[in-house]
Amino acid sequence: MYEQKWLGRNGVCVYDQQLQHEYIRKLKLRDKLKHAIKDKKISVYYQPIIDNKTGTVCKFEALARWYDEHDGFIPPSVFIPIAERYGLIGMLGQQVFEKACADLDRIHRCGFRDVIFSINHSVKEFSQHNQEYIFEIINNYNLPYSAIMIEITESTALDDGKNILEILAAFRERGIAISLDDFGTGYSSLAAIIDIKPDIIKIDRSFIVDIEHSKESQMLVSLVIDLSCKLNVEVVAEGVETQAQLDILSSMSCHYIQGYYYSPAVAIDDAIMILKARNGDISIDNIDTKLLQ
User: Fold this and answer.
1) Do 208 and 252 touch, CB atoms closer than 8 A?
2) CA of 166: how far to CAs of 125, 158, 186, 187, in Å?
3) Residue 118 to residue 21: CA distance in whole angstroms
4) Which residues lie across from 64 on neighbouring strands?
5) Which residues of 116-142 are buried (b: 16+ CB within 10 A; e: fewer)?
6) What CA–CA distance (Å, rounded) separates 69 from 222?
7) What is the pLDDT of residue 291?
8) Residues 49-72: pLDDT tens digits?
9) Which residues have a Cβ under 8 Å from the Cβ of 203 and sit 6 or more positions away?
10) CB atoms within 10 A of CB 259
11) pTM to 2 decimal places
């Protein structure tokens, strides 16, 4: 019954041995994740977002990573749904947000004060947990609200309705930007732009991977970029891996590029090295002396 409720109502789910094994596997993973969160073993990696006009890093997307001593690296596509399903997403989201803000504070103290962090937010975090901690953590690190971007999927606010839209409006009033992820993969993309009023939309990688060979993908990406320009919304192309993809996106005047072509998600020390290489090493006068101790 619960399995079918998770998959969606008005359906049929047959209980069998495979379902039992899967249920036990999820329970074991839940318990491991609970301990990993408690012991603060969830790390945060950062993938750079490049300004296509200047070649500099303007943003990083903060991504949760989990390494288990027995199972090795467990992908977010596995442990995020587990966290959502078993009520751990609030603790996980807050821990990731705290770590990301601490690392962003470090980057700013290194002199890269224009860098913004885009931090993912699950629909379950909005609907099940108080979001006041976001303002408290930002204030604790004396970060400007404008240095934080909350990233949601296009279906998040539309699925949960008015409550999330009100929370997003409260973020926007403080100066926190909103990024709409996986744009073009849902059924209400245009409605999402109107209702959510995002500052940035991210074109899903599924359209970028075929952009060299698919006229349809090229047309869709071009239309999204043109529409965004008219609505004064910035665009990030996700999943860019080749020079050919970059050339096509450049010809369409896509402003921001994210993907393995430039870098995978990396630990904070490597993120700072990328900043120094792309944005120029900051003068010693602009670096917080505490970082040198």
Assistant:
1) no
2) 14, 12, 21, 22
3) 37
4) 44
5) bbbbbbbbbbbeebebeebeebbeebe
6) 45
7) 38
8) 999 999 999 999 999 999 998 889
9) 183, 184, 221, 224, 235, 236, 237, 238, 254
10) 23
11) 0.86
